[in-house]
Amino acid sequence: MKLRKLQVPAVMEAMDVPALLDKEQIGYEPIACVNWAEYPYKPDVKFRIAHTEDAFLLHFKVKEASVRAHYGEDDGDVWTDSCVEFFSVPGGDGIYYNIECNCIGTILIGAGEERENRMRAPLNVTKQVKRWASLGNQPFEERLGECEWEVALIIPYTAFFRHQITSLDGKTIPANFYKCGDALQTPHFLSWNPIPIAKPDFHRPDCFGKIELE
């Protein structure tokens, strides 16, 4: 997948990302791989992504049968909520980052070379990620019934806190995008790039796809 580089205002808010991506005609990619037969539920999920001089611009749109936002503070277990995720290896050294965001914009960032012993970003790092959520930012327990929601993120390269990344122009980096909801009435685990293994596990950089930055 090729990522266009966009010129943006010096000060930009996450709520402006969808309109900018519309204007620039950035297309959506589906998160539609059902990798495990015991979790067949497939909500309608898509995302689009671009980059700037120093950040990723990311916009997710979701339609699912129920929605949950238990976690309202960063660094919680947001994957148990209605959650979208961006995993990537921006430094080229085997350390991958998991950036996870629930449907009200609560963020978790982790880093490491494997699933175990991951380092979670401190709050002064997670707060650097600007976020907008169509459902607002107040926590709520699971709401049953079809719901549509969106989140937009501005992820500065400083969020990759174990590296000093100043530019990703012209780079090709491994990445994957996910939708999950471990504690929802109908748990599900969707991916952008397939994960051909026996049991659900998003922490598989060997299954990442490639994103090429302009």
* Envelope shape: globular
What is the CATH architecture annotation? Sandwich
Could you tell me how far the N terminus lies from the C terminus, measured between alpha carbons in angstroms? 11 Å
Number of helices: 2
Specify the helix fraction band.
Answer: under 10%
CATH class, named: Mainly Beta
Number of strands: 14
Low-confidence stretches: none
* Largest sheet descriptor: 9 strands, mixed
Determine the mean pLDDT: 97
CATH topology: Immunoglobulin-like
Q: Rounded to an integer, what's the Rg over CA atoms? A: 16 Å
Please give the domain count.
1
- What's the order of the H and E elements? EHEEEEEEEEHEEEEE
What is the strand and helix layout of this fold?
Blueprint: E1 2-3, H1 17-23, E2 29-30, E3 33-34, E4 44-51, E5 55-69, E6 83-88, E7 96-102, E8 107-112, E9 119-120, H2 123-126, E10 130-133, E11 140-156, E12 172-180, E13 189-191, E14 209-213
Parallel strand pairs: 1-14
Antiparallel strand pairs: 2-4, 3-13, 4-5, 5-11, 6-7, 6-12, 7-8, 8-9, 10-11, 12-13, 12-14
